[in-house]
């Protein structure tokens, strides 16, 4: 079976299917999406799977939590021996650096977590004995994924660790610290971890940098920025938690985030205002066009319908109106609900 298997947030299969179909078509590759609402994954069947894989980097996919290259679909697996057909389906000359046994993050598949854990423990030694799995984790080799969608139905797939989510199920395990002012703090933490590379984090998130946080109350995103020792102007008519103000790094302004502008250019602007996505995209573009910030992370809350169309439209609007070349990365993060998170940075030369 040729194609891709991508995980997504349950309920966002149509958006992911539309994204994959459109991106495959623009790369000149024929294929079709196979999906069912609330499955938490989409298959994109395509004969030219290698070309498709290369044309759709995981980082650039908005609705895909994970991107895997399909090897085989196995149905009617015998619960007393699922290992033999799996070994038979893998190419003899394959060698994997790691094994992840997973299931989609859907209501129907979550109960398969126990099976995935115990099956992984049984399959690992069998793969090693067959010479298919390295003795120790090796991220230079492809990673093998077994994806159970039912007790007797699984997909074999592989990922390239450099072009895939580094977390099983594509879900980063972030802990909400007790002093985080809101759960929203996890969204910005995940955005920094997922949308930025380690080199970008080191270079662009440094102590002493300046930031604005639009729609800041009760202070989760501001708190994340102060933990990186940034100086933050937090704009919101609502109150910020006292311990955030006590960092000495925060100025709280009770103002309208759609009107306020900084007196001097800032290193960062972040925005979590709940508003119509087009209005937010336009305001974010104004910040770049006017040179008020060098880089930004912002949320776009999606409507109930035509969410892929709205996503594409907002990102196009933002890119057009920003008036300068930007590197834009957008993702529906695990901690995002009906929204996506966007990182915009100056485009690197070369
Ligand atoms: C989802 S909450 C932000 C949560 C925050 N990022 C955190 O981590 O705690 C959205 C906030 O946007 C604020 N907001 C909405 N419209 C605004 C506007 N026009 N100007 C300033 N703040 C606004 C609301 O008051 C609300 O506090």
UniProtKB/TrEMBL annotation:
Domain Ribosomal RNA large subunit methyltransferase M THUMP-like, residue spans: 81-159
Write down the EC number. 2.1.1.186
Give any Gene Ontology cellular component: cytoplasm
| Annotated catalysed reactions | cytidine(2498) in 23S rRNA + S-adenosyl-L-methionine = 2'-O-methylcytidine(2498) in 23S rRNA + S-adenosyl-L-homocysteine + H(+)
Q: Does the keyword Nucleotidyltransferase apply?
A: no
Question: What keyword terms does UniProt attach to this protein?
Answer: Cytoplasm, Methyltransferase, rRNA processing, S-adenosyl-L-methionine, Transferase
Q: Which residues form the active site?
A: 301
Q: What class of enzyme is it?
A: transferase
Q: Which GO terms describe its biological process?
A: methylation; rRNA processing
Which coarse location class applies to the principal site listed for this UniProt protein? cytoplasm
Localization annotation? Cytoplasm
Q: Which GO terms describe its molecular function?
A: S-adenosylmethionine-dependent methyltransferase activity
Q: List, for all copies, the residue spans of the domain called Ribosomal RNA methyltransferase FtsJ.
A: 182-274
Which InterPro entries has this protein been placed in? RlmM_FDX, RlmM_THUMP-like, RNA_MeTrfase_FtsJ_dom, rRNA_MeTrfase_M, SAM-dependent_MTases_sf
Domain called RlmM ferredoxin-like: residue spans: 1-68
- Any idea which positions bind S-adenosyl-L-methionine? 184, 217-220, 236, 256, 272
List the PANTHER family: RIBOSOMAL RNA LARGE SUBUNIT METHYLTRANSFERASE M (PTHR37524), RIBOSOMAL RNA METHYLTRANSFERASE FTSJ DOMAIN-CONTAINING PROTEIN (PTHR37524:SF2)
Q: Family per UniProt?
A: Belongs to the class I-like SAM-binding methyltransferase superfamily. RNA methyltransferase RlmE family. RlmM subfamily.
On subunit structure and binding partners, the annotation says: Monomer.
Q: What does this protein do?
A: Catalyzes the 2'-O-methylation at nucleotide C2498 in 23S rRNA.
Q: What is this protein called?
A: Ribosomal RNA large subunit methyltransferase M
Give the lineage: Bacteria, Pseudomonadati, Pseudomonadota, Gammaproteobacteria, Lysobacterales
Instruction: Name the gene for this chain.
Output: rlmM
């Amino acid at each position: 079976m040729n194609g891709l298997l991508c995980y997504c947030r349950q309920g966002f299969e149509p958006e992911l299917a539309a994204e994959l179909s459109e991106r495959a078509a623009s790369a000149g590759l024929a294929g079709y999406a196979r999906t069912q609402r609330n499955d938490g994954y989409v298959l994109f069947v395509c004969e030219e799977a290698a070309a498709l894989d290369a044309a759709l980097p995981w980082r650039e996919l908005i609705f895909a939590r994970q991107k895997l290259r399909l090897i085989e679909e196995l149905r009617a697996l015998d619960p007393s021996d699922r290992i033999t057909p799996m070994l038979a389906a893998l190419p003899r000359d394959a060698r994997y650096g790691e094994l992840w046994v997973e299931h989609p993050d859907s209501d129907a598949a979550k109960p398969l977590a126990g099976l995935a854990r115990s099956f992984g423990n049984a399959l690992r030694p069998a793969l090693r004995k067959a010479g298919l799995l390295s003795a120790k984790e090796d991220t230079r080799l492809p990673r093998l994924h077994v994806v159970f969608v039912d007790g007797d139905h699984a997909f074999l797939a592989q990922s390239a660790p450099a072009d895939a989510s580094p977390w099983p199920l594509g879900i980063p395990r972030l802990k909400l610290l007790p002093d985080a002012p809101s759960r929203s703090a996890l969204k910005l933490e995940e955005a920094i971890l997922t949308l930025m590379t380690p080199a970008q984090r080191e270079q662009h998130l440094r102590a002493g940098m300046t930031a604005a946080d639009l729609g800041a109350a009760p202070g989760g995103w501001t708190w994340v920025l102060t933990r990186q020792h940034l100086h933050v102007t937090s704009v919101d008519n609502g109150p910020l938690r006292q311990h955030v103000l006590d960092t000495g790094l925060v100025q709280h302004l009770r103002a309208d985030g759609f009107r306020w502008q900084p007196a001097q250019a800032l290193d960062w602007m972040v925005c979590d205002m709940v508003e119509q996505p087009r209005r937010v995209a336009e305001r974010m573009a104004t910040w770049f066009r006017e040179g008020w910030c060098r880089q930004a992370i912002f949320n776009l809350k999606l409507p109930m319908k035509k969410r892929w169309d709205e996503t594409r439209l907002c990102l196009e609007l933002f890119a057009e109106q920003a008036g300068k070349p930007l590197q834009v990365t957008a993702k529906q993060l695990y901690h995002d609900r009906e929204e996506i998170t966007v990182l915009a940075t100056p485009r690197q030369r070369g």
